[in-house]
Structure formats: structure tokens, C-alpha cells
Structure to design on (92 residues):
């Protein structure tokens, strides 16, 4: 193991879940991605099937479900009104 790898492994990283999005089965066909419109931030798909955003400031956003560059669905989301212990939004 190199010094760089050891140093990276010694670092501790912390993130905070801001929003988890569940896209209903059958809502869209093919591969989709989930984005916040402004600022343009792409969610990460976790192993449980939720699209998650971390460390996003509490504010109102437009959530987009996309296939490539095509916007399939938009939904307004206000993080201030979501339960901070379970900030989940369902699309579909």
C-alpha cells in the first residue's frame, strides 16, 4: 500500500442525507436519473433503490426525473417541510 492510499484510508468523511427519492416501479420505462434542477445536481442510486442527495442546503427545489436529456417528470420539493429524520419523496 502506498503512502497516498494509507493517508486516504485514515481520513474520515461525513455526509448528511438531504433527500431520498423513490421512483415507483413501472412509472417510467428504461433507465432514468433523478436531478435537482437548480443547482443541477444528480442523485446517486443506492442499493435499496432510492435516489439520494447528500449535503444539499435546506431550500425549495425542482426535482426532475430524466431519461438522457429528456425530462420525464418534474415535482416541487421543499426540504424545510420534510421530516429531517426521514426526508423521503415518492415520484409516481
Amino acid at each position: 500500500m502506498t503512502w497516498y492510499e494509507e493517508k486516504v484510508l485514515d481520513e474520515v468523511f461525513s455526509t448528511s442525507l438531504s433527500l431520498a427519492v423513490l421512483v415507483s416501479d413501472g412509472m417510467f420505462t428504461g433507465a432514468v436519473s433523478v436531478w435537482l434542477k437548480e443547482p443541477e445536481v444528480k442523485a446517486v442510486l443506492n442499493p435499496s433503490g432510492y435516489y439520494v442527495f447528500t449535503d444539499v442546503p435546506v431550500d425549495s427545489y425542482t426535482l426532475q426525473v430524466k431519461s438522457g436529456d429528456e425530462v420525464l417528470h418534474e415535482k416541487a420539493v421543499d426540504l424545510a417541510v420534510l421530516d429531517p429524520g426521514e426526508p423521503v419523496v415518492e415520484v409516481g
